[in-house]
């Protein structure tokens, strides 16, 4: 029988909820994959400042996680994703994407090689039916383990110092590598990964270890400016880093209701991930054809927008007359002191210049229409050497 009062069902709580709820003075919550996720704890500007000047923790538990094991795990993942999984050594992490047979993006995520035939995929959306269908003929086991893993993102220039103070040696940990340490009743895996474009780590443990880990980190980080952050502050940092988010910057192929809303990795500027020589993978034929014929309709670009008003959700025009695309994410960058944006633009307009953004800004209870010049620029907007420095500098 259909549940007609499903709207009364509360969002799930993460293993860190007792601490995140106590710290959430604004009571600012959003929904992420069925979980309650903090948008802003106290002040988004101060939380962003902590990302770039101190250390921050962000609750990653709602991120969807799949465990893939079995004798054919490498062959399966090499067929599923566009990167060469054979080259990923144990203890390594790949940022990767996967497509449908037509070469359209389904999702992006991180692939962790936990053992010779033991992997974890972390992504934004749920894809178990697609993963299972793609496993036909492969000797693999695929299970969702979202509820079985507690995860925190620890980011910022003092993040390594916080971990060292907490007793976890990360001085030799290189970007996109991970190491496991004993902690509490189980263990703690630390990967040098993140979504801020800054020095940072992601911490993976069991739900039983979640609260002890939170308390241990905050005790160790008290002298180094450690504070929790919500999605609003994180979004500014990820925009500066030029990172994409599924269902914000592109629609997953199997969720798109309109045929013209799907995008390929080439159209989203993610073709640098593709290993064209590794052999067949889902969508390869379509992507080779698109590459060789130059048939891409869209381009995903970074924009430097004149003025100081965020262009989020704005429409792009060529020569102020012809609609040319849409801004998918935008903000005023505190580090760069400029208005930046990510946008899908028709490829014919992407390199020709003369792009304008139509912004509606609130001016004393009335909206004012602003046509602001936008210049296509390289991504990422912000490049910080400390992101890759090994060993990380002590701050």
Task: Summarize this structure briefly.
By secondary structure, this protein is of the alpha+beta class.
Description:
The N and C termini lie far apart (59 Å). The protein has nine helices and 19 strands. The protein has helices at residues 17-23, 44-53, 73-80, 128-134, 159-165, 210-220, 231-241, 284-293, 347-350, and strands at 28-32, 35-40, 55-59, 64-69, 93-99, 105-115, 118-123, 141-144, 150-155, 178-183, 186-191, 200-205, 226-228, 298-305, 315-318, 322-333, 338-346, 355-363, 366-377. It is α+β, with helices and mostly antiparallel strands and 395 residues long.
Fold blueprint:
Blueprint: H1 17-23, E1 28-32, E2 35-40, H2 44-53, E3 55-59, E4 64-69, H3 73-80, E5 93-99, E6 105-115, E7 118-123, H4 128-134, E8 141-144, E9 150-155, H5 159-165, E10 178-183, E11 186-191, E12 200-205, H6 210-220, E13 226-228, H7 231-241, H8 284-293, E14 298-305, E15 315-318, E16 322-333, E17 338-346, H9 347-350, E18 355-363, E19 366-377
Parallel strand pairs: 3-13
Antiparallel strand pairs: 1-2, 3-9, 4-7, 4-8, 5-6, 6-7, 9-12, 10-11, 11-12, 14-17, 14-19, 15-16, 15-18, 16-17, 18-19
The profile of the biggest β sheet is: 6 strands, mixed
Work out the helicity level. 10-25%
- Enumerate the spans where pLDDT stays under 50 for 5 or more consecutive residues: none
DSSP helix count?
Answer: 9
Computed Rg:
21 Å
The number of E-state strands comes to: 19
Average per-residue pLDDT, rounded, comes to: 96
Elements, N to C (H/E): HEEHEEHEEEHEEHEEEHEHHEEEEHEE
Strand order of the largest sheet: 10-11-12-9-3-13
* Shape descriptor: globular
Structural class: alpha+beta
Give the N-terminus to C-terminus distance in angstroms.
59 Å
Strand content: 25-35%
């Amino acid at each position: 029988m259909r549940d007609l009062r499903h709207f009364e069902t509360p969002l799930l709580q993460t293993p860190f909820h007792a601490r995140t709820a106590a710290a959430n003075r604004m009571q600012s919550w959003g929904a992420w994959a069925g979980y309650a996720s903090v948008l802003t704890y106290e002040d988004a500007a101060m939380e962003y400042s902590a990302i770039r000047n101190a250390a921050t923790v962000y609750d990653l538990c709602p991120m969807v996680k799949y465990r893939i094991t079995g004798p054919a795990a490498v062959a399966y993942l090499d067929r599923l994703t566009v990167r060469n999984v054979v080259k990923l050594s144990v203890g390594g992490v790949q940022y990767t994407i996967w497509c449908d047979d037509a070469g359209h993006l389904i999702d992006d995520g991180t692939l962790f090689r936990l053992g010779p035939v033991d992997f974890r995929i972390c992504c934004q959306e749920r894809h178990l039916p697609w993963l299972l269908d793609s496993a036909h003929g492969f000797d693999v086991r695929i299970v969702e383990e979202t509820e079985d893993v507690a995860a925190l993102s620890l980011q910022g220039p003092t993040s390594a110092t916080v971990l060292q103070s907490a007793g976890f040696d990360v001085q030799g940990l290189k970007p996109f590598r991970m190491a496991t340490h004993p902690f509490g009743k189980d263990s703690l895996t630390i990967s040098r990964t993140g979504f801020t474009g800054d020095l940072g780590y992601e911490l993976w443990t069991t739900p039983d270890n979640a609260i002890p880990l939170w308390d241990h980190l905050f005790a160790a980080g008290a002298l180094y400016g450690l504070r929790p952050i919500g999605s609003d502050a994180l979004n500014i940092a990820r925009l500066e880093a030029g990172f994409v988010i599924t269902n914000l910057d592109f629609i997953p192929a199997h969720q798109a209701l309109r045929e013209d809303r799907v995008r390929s990795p080439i159209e989203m500027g993610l073709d640098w991930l593709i290993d064209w020589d590794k052999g067949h993978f889902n969508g390869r034929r379509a992507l080779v054809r698109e590459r060789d014929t130059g048939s891409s309709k869209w381009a995903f670009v970074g924009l430097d927008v004149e003025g100081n008003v965020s262009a989020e959700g704005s429409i792009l025009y060529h020569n102020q007359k012809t609609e040319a695309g849409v801004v998918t994410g935008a903000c005023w960058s505190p580090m760069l002191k400029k208005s930046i944006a990510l946008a899908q633009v028709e490829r014919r307009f992407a390199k020709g210049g003369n792009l304008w953004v139509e912004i509606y800004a609130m001016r004393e209870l009335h909206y004012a229409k602003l046509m602001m010049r936008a210049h296509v620029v390289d991504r990422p907007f912000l490049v910080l050497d400390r992101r890759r420095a090994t060993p990380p500098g002590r701050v």
